[in-house]
Amino acid sequence: MIQDNLKKIQETIPSGVTLVAVSKTKPAEMILDAYAAGQRHFGENKVQELTEKQEQLPKDIYWHLIGHLQTNKVKYIAPFVHLIHAVDSLKLLKEINKQAKKNNRIISCLLQFHIATEDTKFGMTRAEVEELINSDAYQEMENVKLCGVMGMATLTDNESRVREEFHHLKNEFEYFREKYFSDTDQFSVISMGMSGDYQLAIEEGSTMVRVGSSIFGQR
Ligand SMILES: *Cc1c(COP(=O)(O)O)cnc(C)c1O
Fold this sequence. Notes:
The chain has 10 helices and 8 strands.
């Protein structure tokens, strides 16, 4: 079933879009099923669950931390994490840089933007991101690499609203890429779209979708 679901989704995703299979709450056997079908990018939203799965599962999996990350937990994932999606403060980025340095790594990160009209979701505004990037602390960081943006749309069946929110994130991405990263190609990721809205997200420019329940079933 998982392999069929994956295949169906892969068929609807253009080649330039990375599919992150969100395996949170699902057992390792299910991840191995997807792995056997060729899937290598997996996303988790809890640090403890992520580290437990990373220990048990094949070492060539690219692990994405997609959920809110507490500063005091960065050290547990710093040795292996492939991409941290939800950087929402300078304080968190400082800690990622510190732990990356300890592990002799450069950790790739995405800036989480607040794009939903709901106030329950984390994320920064353009002004906050601007302040982060312009800070002396960020300028001095050598062990983090900002690779793009991430956002979560409002949970609603109002399609035009979701589309607008994705469009907004794409605009923010373009703004920051042109202003701060125009001389490099490191800033290239737009992480947006989940099971319910990834097709819309791709139409609005997503380069990375995070799909859970459509692959592994309801949680
Ligand atoms: C759970 C989760 C997803 C996947 O959600 P589905 O609706 O199951 O596809 C994507 N992104 C984040 C940040 C999540 O926490």
